[in-house]
């Protein structure tokens, strides 16, 4: 399997430029805030969203200076959501480092997330066009809606598949769709192509979250580099569990519900064992595959280029990833 750095190769220098803008923006004359900024800087190692924005721009036309600014903006928004998610999930590890909430507490973590969002808007305001600022604002609103919906459905063992898909579309896929949309728009693509690239990002984002939810149940924490099993602990029903509860026998359903509602510290292991003996993991992986296939079809309509090939490879990477 290729590494992400190889997939970014057509825009490697552009990703580096976006990373510099990110670092240069997050400055403060307060030592404590500078320490926080340096710490969250560890969380943007993969730079998936900036790379998608830049690759889409390159695949649809020429990159402009605005692309680098926007790539930094979307990474700030993304990391803000990670910092807030770690508070909600009471997570201890992120990118193999301690989370902000673990080191400094929930109050500082929430405020640090807000600090990142405000800087994202500050960067957006440096562009002549208000198109990006309005779209980023709309996107962050949608992400917050998805997070609120997820929290509201904690311990809801009757959550339907379409409700789950709506939640993950809002909280995860919407930002990825926006990245691809901005990349195409600022490269001068026509409206149809901009809309198609948004759909590419949405499909990729849904597949990414389904895969992430499977890994949260079956992955290795050391390999993932973050806290796993948090979904079950926080009462979040994800696709493998939704399918299992819907398709299993009454006896097996009752057994799963007992684990989901219990407080046994080994319940994640018990749940994983039940899932491994069912078709629910395969069902979830096939669902992710169908969304990746949609993304690949959209990418195939772009003019041939290294950037287009990288977009396709990133879609395939989603299915193969283990972290």
What do you see in this structure?
The protein is mainly alpha-helical and 323 residues long. It has one domain: Farnesyl Diphosphate Synthase (Orthogonal Bundle), CATH 1.10.600. It has helices spanning 4-7, 12-25, 31-40, 48-60, 65-89, 100-104, 106-124, 131-152, 161-185, 191-218, 221-224, 230-233, 239-247, 250-261, 267-276, 280-300, 306-320, and strands at 93-94, 97-98. A two-stranded antiparallel sheet has the order 1-2. Helix 4 runs antiparallel to helix 17 (306-320). The longest helix has 28 residues, at 191-218.
The biggest sheet amounts to:
2 strands, antiparallel
Low-confidence runs of at least 5 consecutive residues: none
Helix content: over 70%
Strand residue content: under 5%
Structural class: mainly alpha
Return the string of H and E elements. Answer: HHHHHEEHHHHHHHHHHHH
Count of domain modules: 1
Indicate the overall shape. Answer: globular
Number of strands: 2
Terminal CA distance? 13 Å
